[in-house]
Amino acid sequence: MKCNIQVVICECCVSKPALLDIPALQKIASEAGNVTSVIIADAVCDGENLSGVMKEAREKEVDRAIVLACHKRDVDPSLFKAYARAGVPANLIEIVNLREEVVLPGAAEPERAQAKAEAKLNAAVARVRMLEPLEKDTEEMRTRNIVIIGAGVAGQAAAEVAARSGAHTIMIEKTGKSLKSPGVLMPHTTVIDGKGYGGNFTLRIKAGEKVEDLDCAAVIVATGGGWATLKGPLAKACKDAIPLFKLHEKLESDTTPAGPVVIVDTPDPSGKNVKVQDFAWEESLETAARLKKAKPDTDVWIVFQEMRAFGLSELAYKEAAELGVRFVRYDKPAPPKIDPKEPTKLTVKDSAQAEVISINFGTLVFASIPANADNARIADALRIPMSPEGGVRRGSMQRWPVSTPRPGVFVCGSALFPKSRAVAEAEGTAAGELAAEFVKKGEIEFGGIIAKVEQEKCSACLTCVRTCPYEAPFIGEAGKIEIKAQLCQGCGMCAGICPSKAIELLNYTDDQLGTEARTLLGGDF
Amino acid sequence: MTAAKALVDKGANVVLVEKSESLGGMARGLTCKGLAECRNCGVCFAIDRANDMMRDANAEVLLISEVVSIEKEDGGFRVKIKTSPRYVTDDCTGCGKCVEVCPVEGKAVFPPTGSGQPRIHRIDRTKCLHFKRGACDKCASVCPTKAIDYEDRATNVTRKVSSVVYATGIEAIDAKDVSRLGGGRLEDVVSSVDAERILNDKGRLVRPSDGKAPKRVAMLQCVGSRSVRAGVEYCSKFCCKYGTKIAQMMLDTDPEINLDFYFMDLRTLYEPQDEFKAWAKGKKTVKLIRSMPAAVSRRDDGKLLVKVAGETDLEIHENEYDLVILSVGMRPKGADTELAKALGITADAYGFAQATDALRDSGVFLAGAVSEPMDIEETAIKAIATASKVASGKEAAR
User: What is the pTM of this model?
Assistant: First the structure.
């Protein structure tokens, strides 16, 4: 194939402050092999003055380009679009960051900066000469369905928002509770398995007794928390403890039991995995204060490890204390105990006063909820990671919030870890918005800079299969590794680790990188 | 910014009015807390959104600008915005040469706060000699891009909008407010934000007084918040997360430091298993002390004395330190201004803007920590939710 390189020098990036010998750079570029066009233009990085550049690109039948400018991230997308129209695919455009790597740090030493700029230009020419055009493929989304797993606060908010944005929602709920959300509602349904990738998932669901496959484009995990029962030694001694929401219900219906009430912060204080759960505090404090207001004579105790009354719940903490709710803080090594012989007496070492307190209680309430036991199955079906506490793990903050490491899968509410109602609702809304945005695209784009296997060299050792975070490599029909292009994110880990050197990352092959490195090292700097 | 970004993604046109010279809010002054691995502080998220905003064609960003007046008009608002002069044009590359040559003590030309975007500098008219005496033009002569423009004038623009998102944010409770603990009074008592700045500038923690690395450091949580005396009875929510990350960063850069971490309750967000406690337990040099110091004083040899009740006994101890860090809380900003009143925003006793249905129906939405304490991640999530409400409100109006 032909190889006509255009070199564009962005004036705003390389000549402010005036440091580099631009005519010299121009000369080097025009004398380099395969370079058929050299242009200096102002503010190319901002997407301005592109018409002249593109006119020459068409005239000289340019098929690859080097742009001496600033960081690739700061270059305006319109530059890439214009080149695409002129027949130069994005991967054949090399952006050389002269601004941040040469001009700004080199202000004190113009000669060194000039040498570095020349070396970088030569290396870029050497590299660009070797590049092959890579096209991106697209695949139509088979459906525009958004599946929402869980019809709690977060799930319902997500469904409502996604439906309003025009998406088709399918709500899957494990229990038979009455559902009011828009779209298709599937009570008594669970997800048992799944395959595919963002845009084209196929979930295997069990609706009642029937197992069926469900196609969808995006998934929102809103499984919420699990149902708690008391665990460990406390459970053996006390049989009729109730969770916090039951106490709340009793308060609503005015059937609160007589006698002192003790609220413990976790269902298993002596357990190894004690969960200090944030949500419980707001609710515990408000419920305790309400109980005290309704029945001022009832003794109310809150037994806790760490009082996480975040933000404005601090005010509820203060109110509860003023109403006479009594607080006892224990340390993890000395959890509260109940002697089975006296099942209504709780003894706990108050670490603030360093003394042991005995409380004769009428009702024992535990305030926290554990992670949902279904999370493991759902995370496995969607191939998303879990946190050590049994919640679904969110992706890095740098991607968007409520995202998971897997495109097209979103997570909100207590599926991560216990959340308050307001936060769960906000997260559900955000997840609904982002999922609707995702399916609106209608197609998924893949390919381009991805891994490629040279099958003759592959010994099917499975190292890449174990290494890939995205499950892209698999053993194909020939008994050798193949790469599922839709799953490959182009990270290059498989290429780096392959013991037979059978995998290369397109656009960053050993040859291309090696040539670039050799040219750089030959430069005078 | 997240709300603005979510709205332009939905095809809306957004006018972003920012009082200061750059985008990024409180997060501008903060930096990445991860040395070896991501600690999920969310600062990069804020800076990335600032970049998005600067480059989005559907977003008009007005910096150093203030809303002069807002009037209701045919189902929307007519907003008058005044943009103050910056005296530096968009040609500024942020090289900083002007700052070097500025003869004014304390400098009259500044870069944007922290990692705020864009990096264009700004001249303070009240300090600059050019305006005071009409004589100096050192910055203009040294500027490689001729970006200094002494003739810059304030501009007024009017925009018609259908909804207003009010996100004026928070400010740190000034550590000087707590002079009992030495804030603003003793040189080696710094706020947590100052400590982060020192860590970034010097690569390790040093004492402001003599530039030496401290051996013993005390970190005090809940300074200025959870305090009846300061009038801030709520918990600022993010300072435990922030303080613990600073502590980890400090020990990562300088393992020699002996750290005493004083706190009331450890309310680390998103750490269901109390990872910080586990981390502290694994370090011999870190001690967690559940007690609030009463006073900090300076001994003649420069050591700081922290007066504190013992955790288990009720004795009063005086512990010696080289450096004391105050982890300061926050208070809401801008919820009780004339502008807020004109929009119908009411503030509670602590100054937090109150979200009411009437406010939402009138087309005014709240975003960020001006409505209640929250960290960057929660702010971002709630901002997307707010944007969703704004967009659906507009559809209903149509």
Answer: 0.81
